């Protein structure tokens, strides 16, 4: 399952990938070449921690895939981690993804881990032929779009995970746990160009997770496997990020998504993500309320027109007031 290789290839000379964008490495003294090795060293330490956690849980480290989450990070830095043998990377913004992926080697196994809108499916599939997995399928509509998109391109089936909202927080993407069986069934039985591979969760709204989130995802897996009649080993659990991947592995994760611990802290996102989710949720609410008000008013108008009273009628005066304002003359 693992594609990374902890040994540094001897032939690597890091050509073209040595210039650093600002803010990457702070105050380490030494040559720029040494500074460029920071992400590679961080990866190595992550892989070590992963294999220790796997051992502790009596599982092999080959059973846990490490997705290096490179969102917001420059191509040069991704190349550095690629050059020490890592092949699995994750991105979560389509626009950024389709700009970066074509500049990087084709043997990268890309995971898309972000919110996917149906109008972005086509550009995503077209720009990233080496897209290996979409971890964030959370409704039938997006599954159908992906299925059709892959079919039209005639590429090999696309692996997908069903994203589950295990925190109960309203605005987070991901399907409710109660809906995961139905969606998993839909993907595996009605989407011929998709390969259902398991379940994914982010955890809480602030991108942290609790043991309850991990347990909830494992419970979903039990139900899904029972319903589909497949062994649990055939259903992956993508859970655990920089701050909690060891615990996630001990609780059964097969796929950890690790960003900041490998690539360093991000300057943007996260807080913006949360703010964006908040705005989206609230502006949706505002739109809905506006819609209700306009609909109610329009309906009242229609009724008033239909029920237009005869001239002499007592109601006629009120009707006139309603439609023509205070014009009692
Ligand atoms: C950014 C991101 C991660 C990585 O988060 P870190 O805490 O930096 O490891 C993992 N999963 C998803 C879906 C993300 O968007």
TrEMBL record:
Tell me the Pfam families matching this sequence: Ala_racemase_N
Among its keywords, does the record have Disulfide bond?
Answer: no
Q: Which domain of life is it from?
A: Eukaryota
- Drop me one GO molecular function for this one: pyridoxal phosphate binding
Q: What are the residue boundaries of the Alanine racemase N-terminal domain, all occurrences included?
A: 50-266
Q: Which residues carry this modification: N6-(pyridoxal phosphate)lysine?
A: 71
Q: Where is this region: Disordered?
A: 1-32
Give the UniProt keywords, A-Z.
Pyridoxal phosphate
In this chain, composition skew of type Acidic residues spans 1-10
What job does the chain carry out?
Pyridoxal 5'-phosphate (PLP)-binding protein, which may be involved in intracellular homeostatic regulation of pyridoxal 5'-phosphate (PLP), the active form of vitamin B6.
- What family is it from? Belongs to the pyridoxal phosphate-binding protein YggS/PROSC family.
Q: What is this protein called?
A: Pyridoxal phosphate homeostasis protein
């Amino acid at each position: 399952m693992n594609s990374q290789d902890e040994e540094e290839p001897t032939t690597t000379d890091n050509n073209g990938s040595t210039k650093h964008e600002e803010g990457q490495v702070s105050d380490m003294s030494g040559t720029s070449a040494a500074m460029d090795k920071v992400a590679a060293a961080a990866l190595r330490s992550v892989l070590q921690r992963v294999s220790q956690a796997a051992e502790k849980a009596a599982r092999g480290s080959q059973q846990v895939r490490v997705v290096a989450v490179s969102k917001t990070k420059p191509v040069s830095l991704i190349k550095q981690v690629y050059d020490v043998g890592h092949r699995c990377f994750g991105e979560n913004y389509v626009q950024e993804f389709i700009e970066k992926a074509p500049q990087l080697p084709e043997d990268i196994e890309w995971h898309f881990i972000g919110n996917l809108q149906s109008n972005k499916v086509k550009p995503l599939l077209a720009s990233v032929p080496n897209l290996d997995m979409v971890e964030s399928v959370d409704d039938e509509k997006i599954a159908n779009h992906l299925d059709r998109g892959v079919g039209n391109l005639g590429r090999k089936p696309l692996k997908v995970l069903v994203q589950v909202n295990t925190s109960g927080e309203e605005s987070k993407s991901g399907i409710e746990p109660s809906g995961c069986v139905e969606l998993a069934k839909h993907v595996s039985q009605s989407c011929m160009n998709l390969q259902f591979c398991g379940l994914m969760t982010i955890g809480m709204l602030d991108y942290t997770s609790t043991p309850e989130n991990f347990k909830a995802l494992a419970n979903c897996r039990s139900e899904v496997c029972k319903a589909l009649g497949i062994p649990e080993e055939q259903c992956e659990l993508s859970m655990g990020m920089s701050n909690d991947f060891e615990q996630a592995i001990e609780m059964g994760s097969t796929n950890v998504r690790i960003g900041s611990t490998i690539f360093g802290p991000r300057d943007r996102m996260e807080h913006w993500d949360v703010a964006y989710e908040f705005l989206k949720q609230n502006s949706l609410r505002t739109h809905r309320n506006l819609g209700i008000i306009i609909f109610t008013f329009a309906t009242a108008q229609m009724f008033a027109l239909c029920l237009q009273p005869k001239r002499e009628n007592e109601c006629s005066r009120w009707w006139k007031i309603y439609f023509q304002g205070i014009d009692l003359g």
